[in-house]
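Reviewer 2 asked us to include a model.

Predict the structure of this chain.
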Amino acid sequence: MKHRVSRRNVMTGVAALAAAGSCSAPPKARAAAPAADFELGAFIEEVERARKEPEAQRAIAEVLARAVSDPAAVIAELGEPHQAGIHPLHRTADLTILNVVWAPLMILLPHDHGMWATIGVYGGREDNILWERAGAQVEAARAASLSVKEVFSLPADAIHSVANPIERLTGALHIYGGDFFAVPRSEWDAETLCERPFDLENALRTFEEANRRFEAGRAPGRS
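Predicted model (structure tokens):
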């Protein structure tokens, strides 16, 4: 019999899985030598060149690791994050680059991408639970906790959920090996863990709701 997992279980599961000795996290890229600076146009061109390499995802991970090795330079170019959101920086049929900002304590449902993805954190922390299919549902398998300057790659068939476990904004560059907004994919209900079509509008509402909670928490007079 499958046990249902609540949103609280999903949140606390990040820390538990990351600490469990029997659940090894997928490898993260080593920190790269600091980049001289970060200029968005030049970064996109470098990623596009890496996309043409035989091992494109590995090449792109190296480019991304150099970029986030200097978080201050990334923030100087993109701007200091002020609210959660998905901000497209580049989009073609075979490549998407997003600046993703997570609100404090925000959680995104388990979902897949239908393409590989590589993530580089330039501010805060991003916790990922990796899930595996188990019949009509998914089961939590392992976890990866990403801090500033760390890069993490997901294969095309990966299923993950994301949480920002800290009480400030987290910023990360997400690079995808396809058109992130055009490929049909799935998400899994937080309570039942049952599969359903991915709902982009609902995901965007999740960011909007997280922003409202964030702004309410920053309102004058709140302790």
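The chain has five helices and twelve strands. Confidence is low (pLDDT under 50) at residues 1-26. We have added this to the supplementary material.
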